[in-house]
Write a sequence for this structure.
């Protein structure tokens, strides 16, 4: 189980870096947090998987120069949000297409609202990107909509990969045990 977790962590981190400069930035980390919370029985490991994957990708960003790997308080908030999404995964009791899709969309929306709110409250004080008003907050949310659209698709695709792979692996293992 640990070897599979390490492989998933590394592949997710590398995927996050490889797809960074694409027009559609696909990151598996939110889907991994949801999957880990829903499937991994060891709750410490459930939290560790997405956090370590995100951290490894940030190190790769920093070392490669593709992007700034470590950039501020908002980034720390992103790690905390991943922990929250892992907790959301604890409540996904029955793996079905509808449940996984619903939880994936909810996770995307949670990340969108909390990360944009975090930027507005923490980073905006440094960069003064938006007016410090309700209309400034709305403008901050609007600026994040393209990321939300891509994030929704990425989260659904990676959730299908993680949960679908898990279900298929379970069926393959059960068939071998019966045969």
């Amino acid at each position: 189980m640990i070897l599979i977790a390490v492989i998933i962590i590394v592949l997710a981190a590398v995927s996050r870096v490889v797809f960074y400069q694409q027009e559609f930035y696909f990151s598996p980390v939110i889907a991994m947090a949801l999957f880990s919370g829903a499937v991994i029985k060891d709750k410490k490991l459930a939290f560790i998987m997405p956090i370590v994957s995100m951290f490894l990708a940030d190190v790769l960003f920093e070392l490669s120069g593709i992007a700034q790997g470590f950039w501020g308080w908002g980034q720390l908030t992103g790690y905390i949000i991943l922990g929250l999404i892992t907790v959301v995964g604890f409540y996904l009791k029955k793996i079905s297409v509808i449940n996984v899709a619903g939880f994936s969309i909810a996770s995307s929306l949670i990340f969108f609202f909390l990360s944009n709110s975090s930027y507005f409250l923490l980073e905006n004080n440094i960069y003064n990107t938006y007016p410090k008003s309700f209309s400034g907050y709305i403008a901050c949310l609007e600026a994040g909509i393209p990321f939300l659209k891509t994030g929704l698709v990425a989260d659904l695709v990676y959730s299908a990969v993680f949960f679908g792979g898990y279900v298929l692996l379970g069926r393959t293992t059960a068939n071998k045990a019966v045969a």
